[in-house]
Amino acid sequence: MRTLFVALAIGALMSTSLIGTASSDSTGPVPTGTAALTGNPVYKTGKFVPKTCEEPTIRGGDIESVQIYADNMAACLGRAWQTQLKKAGIPFSKPKVTVAYGDRIKTACGVYRPGDTFGLYCQKNRTVYLMVTEYGITGELDSPEMLESLSIGYGYHVQRLIGVLAQEARAAKKLSRTGALALSSKVALQNICFTGAFLGSVWDSLGHTKEHGYDYLIDRRSVESSVKGNGTTKNRIHWMRRGFDAQSPGACNTFKAPASKVA
Description:
alpha/beta; 6 strands; globular; single chain; two-stranded antiparallel ribbon; four-stranded mixed β-sheet
């Protein structure tokens, strides 16, 4: 089973209605301008504080157990990221997390037909959608794929909170399509690095070995195809592994990385 991940905040590829800003009830500073990308204070927050995440059991074919799973793991993601953003001096707010089941799923950001487990973040209503199919539920048992999909969607929410998505949207308006896609790749690769960093920090508590993390989460990406605006397969593997090993957002400054690593 392959996890698909989509950000509805990809530079020139998104409509203005999807551009997110800081929560209206936020009182602290949110990085803006180029510094939001290259010098974001989240890079200086160090490793994730060790957290224990316990994955609830997903019963084959039981959508209610998937919602319980998503709620519990989203709470773990929230605790981890709230700590990091507090250290960065950036306001934190939780996204809404919704499990969507079926072959045709309507969201605030459009209609999707997931063929597999699919984590999506919609800025319009600040919601992480964990889309699953009947195959996805029955095939998830004893597999961390739903957690990966959820972490990816949550990572885009974090990128909104720390000012990355807003700056991407502003910058993309002045770029060519090629330039906007290049910037989109950096955002997507940062997201997958954030995902790897969080998963690496809780991996032991989930009862998985580091080797399994490499085999399951990282090396299996070698079967994926490169997608414009999301980074090449080689670079997705690189940034997932980099984050997983470092267990820190500080490893994820894709905006200062060599061009060859963010293509």
